Amino acid sequence: MVSFQFPKQQFDYFLVLDFEANGDHKIIKPMEIIEFPIVKVNAKTFEIESVFQQYVEPEVNEICEYCTKVTGISQDMVRGKPHLRKTLQLVDEWMNKEGLLKDGVKFIFVTCGDWDLKTQLPRETAWFNILLPQYYNQWINIKTPFREVTGIRPHGMKSMLHNLHLTLDGRHHSGLDDSKNISKILTRLAEKGFVYKVTGWHD
């Protein structure tokens, strides 16, 4: 019996991330990341090999009541946690420990929408004058391959899971749980023969 093989990808690893940020119906400036999760997916087996998760204490505004209601993250949960600058250092240390920064290793971030890496992270790091590593400059928005494979315009993660007959596990708007659910979409599309390519980038 021949075992199933995923199509060969141009990357060694997919790093699935889904930020949670402090905000409500009113505009909060700056909007700050309060959960920074990454799920490391092997591009050959599509198994999750490692997980990074860090709650992040905002520097300017305390977490609002609406944000806590949506994400489950309260000010008490982030009090004393690293700010974004230190969190980015911790991410880099984790990536180095995972062998992602070795010469010849190819990885790409995967998001649900372009907001995380096109808008939020560059905007917040600019606000705090933080220099971003270049590896944040390109990503795959999972909505694009989903549309290419299914012909359906996705409205969000929940609708993509539903259309692919996948369950939503954990709490929606928990950054880590959402990242794991996006990983399931990533895997299902690969099972259908999709070969991933970059969909978003900064010059």
Give an account of the 3D structure.
The chain is an alpha/beta fold and 203 residues long. It is built from seven helices and seven strands. It has helices at residues 65-71, 75-78, 84-97, 115-127, 143-150, 157-163, 175-191, and strands at 13-17, 20-21, 33-42, 48-55, 107-111, 138-141, 200-201. Strands 1, 2, 3, 4, 5, 6 and 7 form a seven-stranded mixed sheet that branches. The longest helix is centred in the C-terminal third of the chain and has 17 residues, at 175-191. The chain is globular. The chain starts with 12 loop residues before the first strand and ends with a strand. The model has no long low-confidence stretch (mean pLDDT 96).
